[in-house]
C-alpha cells in the first residue's frame, strides 16, 4: 500500500503523474553534448577537408563564438528562443560547439594528406565517403572522450 505522503507532493500534485520531468533532467546532459557534437563535428569535417575560404569562414565564426563569454552567449540564445529547458539545453550545446569544431578540424587536416586518404581519392571515392569512412573513424576515440567530458561537466568545452 502506498502512503499518501509518498504519492502526493507538498503542492498537491501527484508524483507518478509526471515521470517525464525526471527523464528530462536525466537526459539533458546527453542532449547538450549531442547538440554540441553535431554543431561542431560536421562543420569541422567540412572545413578541415575542403580548406580554403570555407575553412577561413567557419574558423572565424567559431572564433567569434569563442570570444564571447559562454554564459553571455547562452543568455542571448535563450533570450531569442524563449525560456524553457529545451532552449537552455540548445544554448549550452551551442556554446560548447567550438571545442568540438577545433578538435574535428585539427584531426581532419592532419588526416587528409595521409596515404590511405589519397588512395581512396585515387580509386574514385566521393568526398563524403572519404570523410565518414576514412577520416572520421580515426578521431572517434578523441571525440568520445570529449563528448563524455561535455556530458558530465557543466563547463563548456
Task: Describe the overall structure.
By secondary structure, the protein is mainly α. It is built from eight helices and no strands. The radius of gyration is 21 Å and the shape is elongated.
Summarize the structure.
This protein is 76% helix and 0% strand. The chain has 157 residues and is mainly alpha-helical.
Secondary-structure element series: HHHHHHHH
Would you report the number of β strands? 0
Number of helices: 8
- Which radius of gyration do the C-alpha atoms yield? 21 Å
Provide the fold topology:
Layout: H1 4-7, H2 20-50, H3 52-67, H4 70-81, H5 85-111, H6 115-122, H7 127-135, H8 140-152
Keyphrases for this structure?
single chain, 157 residues, mainly alpha, 8 helices, 76% helix, disordered N terminus
Amino acid at each position: 500500500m502506498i502512503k499518501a505522503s509518498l504519492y502526493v507532493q507538498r503542492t498537491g500534485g501527484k508524483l507518478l503523474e509526471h515521470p517525464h520531468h525526471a527523464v528530462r533532467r536525466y537526459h539533458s546532459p546527453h542532449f547538450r553534448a549531442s547538440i554540441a557534437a553535431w554543431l561542431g563535428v560536421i562543420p569541422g569535417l567540412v572545413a578541415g577537408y575542403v580548406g580554403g575560404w570555407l575553412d577561413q569562414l567557419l574558423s572565424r565564426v567559431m572564433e567569434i563564438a569563442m570570444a564571447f563569454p559562454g554564459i553571455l552567449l547562452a543568455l542571448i540564445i535563450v533570450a531569442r528562443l524563449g525560456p524553457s529547458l529545451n532552449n537552455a539545453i540548445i544554448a549550452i550545446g551551442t556554446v560548447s560547439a567550438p571545442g568540438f569544431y577545433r578538435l574535428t578540424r585539427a584531426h581532419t587536416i592532419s588526416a587528409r594528406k595521409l596515404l590511405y586518404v589519397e588512395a581512396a581519392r585515387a580509386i574514385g571515392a566521393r568526398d563524403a565517403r572519404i570523410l565518414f569512412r576514412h577520416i572520421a573513424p580515426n578521431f572517434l576515440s578523441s571525440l568520445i572522450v570529449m563528448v563524455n567530458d561535455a556530458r558530465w561537466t557543466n563547463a563548456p568545452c
